[in-house]
UniProtKB/TrEMBL annotation:
CDD domains: PEBP_bact_arch. Keywords: Signal. Residues 1-26 form the signal peptide. It holds the Pfam family PBP. It comes from the Bacteria. This is YbhB/YbcL family Raf kinase inhibitor-like protein. Belongs to the UPF0098 family.
């Protein structure tokens, strides 16, 4: 009985090790897909300049500017990228930008609030319907919430099924269907 338990335990440890970080990397010589921002550390406080300006409190420091983002270690098969921003505490999608060309590895601060921003060229944004209504980034409006930016490496150059009338939910569904890898960054408001 004791030998059976030891054998089962050893088998369990062996199986668990096969699902660990080393096994998750298909290419051990390649860096893991990662997303970062020069504005805040993963898990850190999101600076006020990235908060929504429509919260009604009149704080001039809140400018609703998207943070600068950078990613590395993306799969070579990526044909484009998309970014989705979620409020993890209430499930609201605050931003969707997609059709980011595969040769781009980051976004500058304050992407235009238009359907087709000038940077990155060729990208498009979903129309945000919530506390404000416009294309592009809608920063954190609620304090003490956790927000997650996720960059998706996609298997398509363009999400042609989406257009200027597509909701953030429709855009997220199209992105999820084309995703081959994801990296994320979290911040608190």
């Amino acid at each position: 009985m004791r030998r059976t338990r030891i054998a089962l335990f050893a088998l369990l440890v062996l199986c668990a090790a096969s699902f660990g970080p080393a096994a998750a990397s298909a290419n051990p010589g390649r860096a893991a897909f990662a997303l970062s921002s020069a504005a805040f550390a993963d898990g850190g406080m999101i600076p006020k300049v990235h908060d929504c300006a429509s919260s009604g409190d009149g704080d001039p420091g809140k400018k609703n500017e998207s943070p600068p983002l950078a990613w590395s270690g993306a799969p070579e098969q990526a044909k484009s990228y998309a970014i989705v921003l979620h409020d993890l505490d209430n499930g609201i999608i605050h931003w969707v930008v997609y059709d980011i060309p595969a040769n781009i590895a980051g976004l500058p601060q304050n992407i235009d609030h238009v359907y087709q921003p000038t940077v990155p060229a060729g990208s498009r944004q979903a129309y945000y319907r919530g506390s404000a209504n416009f294309f592009g980034y809608q920063g954190p409006c609620t304090t003490n919430h956790t927000y997650e930016w996720a960059v998706h490496a996609l298997n398509k150059e363009s999400l042609t099924e989406l257009g200027s009338a597509s909701s953030t939910q429709a855009a997220e569904a199209a992105i999820d269907a084309a995703t081959i890898a994801t990296a994320s960054l979290r911040g608190s408001s």
